[in-house]
């Protein structure tokens, strides 16, 4: 099974990202407009009545209000995460000082409220699609999502798929393995993935049932190593790190033969999607 991810545009533009101040002011304007419309309808139809149906313009404002609320929720969550992280940092410093009996040198950590405010200043949310994220691609930036897929190597059949807001692939290996189990009835015998999925933590996902072949270097460096480096000989030395063990395995004859199937399996899958015009994601 080969894995990979591709950044896919959402139903939103990069220039529709706004900060907390703008969002709050826009929400205030929208609320004032809704109250004005309510007052006009009360005068026209009487209180507790609004006419035959919700006017089209008001429906649009209601939908926009929901998007603004979702965008503000995203910024609030960022503030909450920043505050929690800062509280942990403060607690860690306090514990270390109590254990050593000495005050630590350097500037004291900011208080959680300040950290939250600074996080809000750095965070923007998209008013068209608040769930989408600004993601970096080889060609620049895209407002969208990170699409993930796992395909079996014989026929390029997609066995598992997912869509995430995270820019990096490193935390997607575990979820894709679970989806393979759910959708295919079991874990694959081998997983092939590029360096975007490598981490010491992911290496622990290897089991007797599933062997991992994950590059530890960028594509061109990995290809160069597999082309030029001699295959390792003898027993696996003791004391190798997880990274060193993986690098050694990929340089073996079996490792080279297995890993080279990755590119010819999963990359054409995404290429075929693009050829068919599947270049964006729309959530409704």
Structure description:
The protein has 284 residues and is of the alpha+beta class. The chain has two domains: 2-9 and 133-275, no CATH class; 20-123. 49% of the residues lie in helices and 15% in strands. Strands 1, 4, 5 and 6 form a four-stranded antiparallel sheet that branches. Strand 7 (190-193), helix 5 (200-203) and strand 8 form a beta-alpha-beta unit. The longest helix is centred in the first third of the chain and has 45 residues, at 56-100. The chain is flat. 22% of the residues are buried. The model has no long low-confidence stretch (mean pLDDT 87).
- Based on CA atoms alone, the radius of gyration comes out at 26 Å
Give the domain tally: 2
Total count of strands: 8
How much of the polypeptide forms β-strand, as a percent range? 15-25%
Low-confidence stretches: none
End-to-end distance: 31 Å
Oligomer: single chain
What's the rounded overall pLDDT mean? Answer: 87
Shape: flat
Biggest beta sheet summary: 4 strands, antiparallel
SS element count, helices? 9
Helix and strand run: EEHHHEEEEHEHEHHHH
Helix fraction? 40-55%
What class would the helix/strand composition place it in? alpha+beta
Using brief descriptors, characterize the structure shown.
alpha+beta
Short structural description:
By secondary structure, the chain is of the alpha+beta class.
């Amino acid at each position: 099974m080969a894995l990979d991810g591709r950044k896919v545009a959402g139903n939103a533009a990069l220039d529709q990202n706004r900060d907390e101040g703008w969002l709050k002011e826009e929400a205030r304007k929208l609320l004032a407009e809704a109250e004005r419309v309510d007052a006009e309808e009360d005068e026209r139809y009487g209180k507790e009545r609004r006419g035959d149906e919700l006017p089209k313009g008001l429906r649009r404002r209601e939908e926009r209000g929901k998007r603004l609320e979702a965008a503000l929720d995203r910024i609030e969550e960022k503030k909450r995460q920043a505050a929690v992280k800062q509280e942990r940092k403060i607690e860690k410093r306090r514990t270390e000082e109590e254990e050593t009996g000495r005050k630590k040198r350097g500037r004291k950590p900011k208080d959680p409220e300040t950290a939250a405010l600074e996080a809000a200043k750095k965070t923007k949310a998209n008013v068209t699609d608040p769930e989408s994220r600004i993601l970096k691609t080889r060609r620049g930036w895209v407002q969208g999502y990170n699409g993930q897929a796992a395909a079996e190597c014989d026929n390029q059949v997609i066995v598992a798929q997912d869509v995430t807001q995270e820019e990096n692939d490193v935390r997607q290996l575990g979820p894709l393995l679970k989806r393979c189990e759910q959708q295919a009835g079991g874990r694959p015998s081998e997983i092939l993935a590029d360096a975007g999925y490598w981490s010491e933590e992911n290496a622990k996902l290897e089991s007797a049932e599933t062997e991992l072949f994950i590059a530890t270097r960028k594509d061109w460096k990995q290809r160069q190593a597999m082309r030029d480096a001699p295959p390792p000989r003898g027993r696996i030395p003791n004391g190798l790190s997880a990274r060193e063990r993986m690098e050694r395995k990929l340089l073996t004859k079996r490792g080279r033969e297995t890993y080279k199937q990755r590119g010819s399996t999963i990359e054409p899958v995404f290429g075929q999607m693009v050829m068919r015009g599947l270049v964006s994601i729309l959530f409704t």
